[in-house]
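Intended use. Records like the one below are meant for learning the mapping from a protein sequence to its folded structure. Do not use them to infer anything beyond what is encoded.
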Amino acid sequence: AVAAVVVGNPDSFKGVLVTNSNRWQLLHDKTIDLLVAGDTHTIEREVREGSTRSGFTFSSPYTYDGMIYYGNEAYVQCAEEHKRYDECSDLLICAVEGTTHHAFLARTFPFDHIKLVPTYEDVSEMLLNQSCNAGTYDKSFIPSVESLRNGIDDGT
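Structure written out for the chain above:
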């Protein structure tokens, strides 16, 4: 639909697979013209996105969401309270690299309490194999991930 409206030819659309780590660079380099994803509109990305040091224009938000911690109930509470000592000294939070979750955690926790992975599926896998004891996800997605509900607290 975008190609039909912008250039008048719906056949001129070409989908390009992007990742959390390359999407801003591809947009900056004009390898892609439009990024259609669940990216968070932040003032930093509008003025000077970190990996490209360039600003980007965003459409009006079409959904509002929030980060949530899920995983081992005790460690979810540690993460929510930003507690890293005593019973929380072993807190290890998995998050997807290059996301706003990653940026928030980097400002909030020492690096040794954060494990970065490429995808949200990897976050879930790390929780299931107990390589992490808490993970981050978008709040709206947690109820739909039934496979995670077997023995893992979703923080709600």
